[in-house]
Amino acid sequence: MDQNKGQWTSKIGFILASAGAAIGLGAIWKMPYVTGQSGGGAFFLIVVIFTLLIGLPMLLSEYIIGRSTQKEAVTAYKLLAPHNLRWSWIGKLGVIGCFIMLSFYSVVGGWIFIYSGVSLVGGVIEPNANPGDFFNYVIGTPWITLLGLALFTLANVLVIALGVQNGIEKANKVMMPLLFILFIILVVRGLTLDGAVEGVKFFLWPDFSNITGESLLFALGQSFFALAVGFSCLVTYSSYLKKEVSIPQSATWVVVLTILVSFLAGLAIFPVVFTFGMEPTEGPGLLFMVLPAAFSQMAFGEVFLAMFLILFLFATLTSSFSMYEIIVAALIEKLHIRRTKLTVILGIIVFIVSIPSALSFNLLSNVSIFNKSIFDATDYLVSNVLLPLGNILIAIFIVYVMDKQLAKKELLQGSQMGEGYYHVYRALMTYVVPVVIIIVCLARLFGF
Fold first, then answer.
1. What sections of the protein cross the membrane (predicted)?
2. For residue 400, how many other CB atoms are within 10 A of its CB?
3. Which of the two residues, 336 and 344, has the higher pLDDT score?
4. Range 144-154 average pLDDT
5. Which of 151-155, 331-335, 367-371 is modeled with the greatest confidence?
6. What are 53-70's pLDDT values in tens digits?
């Protein structure tokens, strides 16, 4: 088979790859600290609602577009709207958006690589030392951040260069089961701690007093970020999907697994945080400063911390694979360059473009964009501007541009669902998804 154009060997391979695309920084790094900052249970509940009512229909839409054309994102929109090629900009937005996302995502991936390596030799938790000092040392030392960035980029290049079957699918089949096994071990350990009840209560008991327009926008962005929808990554993934595979069943599994991981992340983190009197509102440093401090007070803490960091690394890598793949697939279609050569070139470019974000905590710490660091500004642009925009454009496309009969045929093909399922899906895409996105974005814009 041509290495440039592969196909998933099995339904489970596709589901694990899609879940891997979804389960990454959004579910494990971002979800806990944003939940901590936004009041706990109420925020998590809103994210779950958004994921089911908005994320799932968007996931179905990307699957429909990709499998119906069997083409990567940019070409898929061209084929479905041949009389108005401007719609191909949805795919181009996805390629550009993933490229921008990788410029900060890879930086965090680099931190995790460094932390994972050091934790394996017992170097993260030092007796009588403040774990926050180690985090500040890692992000504040240029050569360390660049080394982590290089390692994370190299890992992606090696997997993506191998192709869909031998690279992405095989990696996900190993990493995703291990991720769940490690998570369950950590959750069981966390729930046996003395202060676990307070942590569980904070995470699951809804308190809507802290919910604002900004919280709603973050929850909406989180549901997009966590499911990897909006940038057409899953248009590209589903283009490798066989026709007999059920799209509704596959999408449901991905959503369930994503919500489950976010749930497990909360159960693994908040009981530990509350048991040892840490602050759940710490922010992005929650996993890198608060958790090591908490694990340092636990029997075999270094072992559990190493397990968590390896889990975190697996999730981050499986998610970044999808971002690389949409770019590689689009460029292969356009430039007709061999996958291996193109992936190496792309890895070098991503590394270079990521350098400003990597250095925004040290050499470029004085540089700000709209009162945000380069890293934070890039994150905000992706999560709160480009992802909502991409999702609105896809919603408009699937409802008003793509042939309705083709969409219905693709959605129901290979599944046991009847026409009622399609009508519910279409109603959500027509009346709920775009309206909620617009309302939440306006609420944030006008400070409601």
1. 12-29, 41-60, 93-114, 134-162, 174-196, 216-241, 253-278, 298-321, 342-361, 381-402, 423-446
2. 9
3. 344
4. 96
5. 151-155
6. 888 999 999 999 999 999
Asked whether the beta carbons of 267 and 71 are under 8 A apart, the reply is no
For tokens 């309302």, what's the residue?
A: 439
Q: 368-376, long-range: CB within 8 Å, 24+ apart, which pairs? A: 375/104, 375/107
CA distance 236 to 370: 33
3-class secondary-structure state, position 372 = strand
Contacts of 336 (CB under 8 A, 6+ apart): none
How far apart are alpha carbons 176 and 17 in whole angstroms?
A: 8
Which residue has tokens 């939440």?
A: 440
Return the closest-CA partner of residue 178 out of 250, 261, 267. 261
Treating both helix axes as pointing N-terminal to C-terminal, what angle do 247-275 and 213-227 enclose, rounded to 10 degrees? 120
Q: Which of 148-157, 207-216, 233-242, 281-290 has the highest mean pLDDT?
A: 148-157
What is the distance between the terminal CA atoms of the chain, rounded to a whole angstrom? 54
- For residue 210, the 8-state DSSP code is G
Element (H, E) at 405: helix 404-412
Residue 183's alpha-carbon distances to 127, 264, 340, in angstroms, are 26, 7, 33
Contacts (Cβ under 8 Å, ≥6 apart) of 425 = 57, 60, 411
Measured CA to CA, the distance from residue 193 to residue 226 in angstroms comes to: 28
CA 171 to chain centre: 17
Count Cβ atoms below 10 Å from residue 52 Cβ, excluding itself.
Answer: 16
Helix ranges (H only) for 209-338 are 213-227, 233-238, 247-275, 290-295, 301-335
Residue 308 contacts residue 182 (beta carbons within 8 Å): yes
Asked if residue 71 lies in contact with residue 232, where contact means CB atoms within 8 angstroms, the answer is no
Contact, 232 vs 91, CB < 8 A?
yes
Quote the CA–CA distance of 117 and 302 in Å, as a whole number: 12
DSSP 8-state secondary structure symbol assigned to residue 369: B
Q: Of the candidates 386, 402, 432, 330, which has an alpha carbon nearest to the alpha carbon of residue 61?
A: 402
User: Closest by alpha carbon to 325, among 57, 2, 6, 88?
Assistant: 6
Read off the pTM.
0.85
Q: What is the rounded distance in angstroms from the CA atom of residue 19 to the CA atom of residue 228?
A: 9
- What's the number of CA atoms in the CB half-sphere (13 Å) around residue 19? 29
Q: Are 217 and 443 in contact (CB under 8 A)?
A: yes
DSSP-derived letter for residue 130 is -
